[in-house]
Hints:
Strand content: 15-25%
Radius of gyration: 22 Å
Shape: globular
Distance between the termini: 59 Å
Largest sheet: 7 strands, antiparallel
Structural class: alpha+beta
Oligomer: single chain
Number of strands: 7
Amino acid sequence: xxxxxxxxxxxxxxxxxxxxxxxxxxxxxxxxxxxxxxxxxxxxxxxxxxxxxxxxxxxxxxxxxxxxxxxxxxxxxxxxxxxxxxxxxxxxxxxxxxxxxxxxxxxxxxxxxxxxxxxxxxxxxxxxxxxxxxxxxxxxxxxxxxxxxxxxxxxxxxxxxxxxxxxxxxxxxxxxxxxxxxxxxxxxxxxxxxxxxxxxxxxxxxxxxxxxxxxxxxxxxxxxx
Length: 225
């Protein structure tokens, strides 16, 4: 192997080692935050169940479900608040407003993040396996190698102070995010679908054994946030 190829090979191995170790650190940080979120969801579920025990009908459900390493769900009445961790690490693109933060400008690596997305679904969409039903992304938690977090989406609008600042995320911050997600979801109404959207239906949909799945359902059908 000539010197130029040897130098290139050495550079490649250095980049692979450095990038892989860095990405693993970000992934591990994100997984740790996901673990904390699961613990908070489990505790919140128990607390809400106790506090509302005498005030809810028997058919109203409040419970927590751990769906594996990358997903957790909180069922609250008609709503499911779903937390989904992505397995990859992403970088904010150039020109994104996040780079305007002084903390970010000091070190470009701070823009590499893991993502935990927060969705709102109807509980019946899962209960009756309505595969065409839609859920809505209400916020995303970004976690970098400092374990600092940034929140965007509708929840980010409600909690505008949650921007990258170099401080490691605390349980109290995660509790704020989760409680805001629950509050947002339970007040996010399901609207009547526009007639034009549902006036046509296929025979296949009416031949399904599950009659509750005949018409796709979701919150604010044909509406944007």
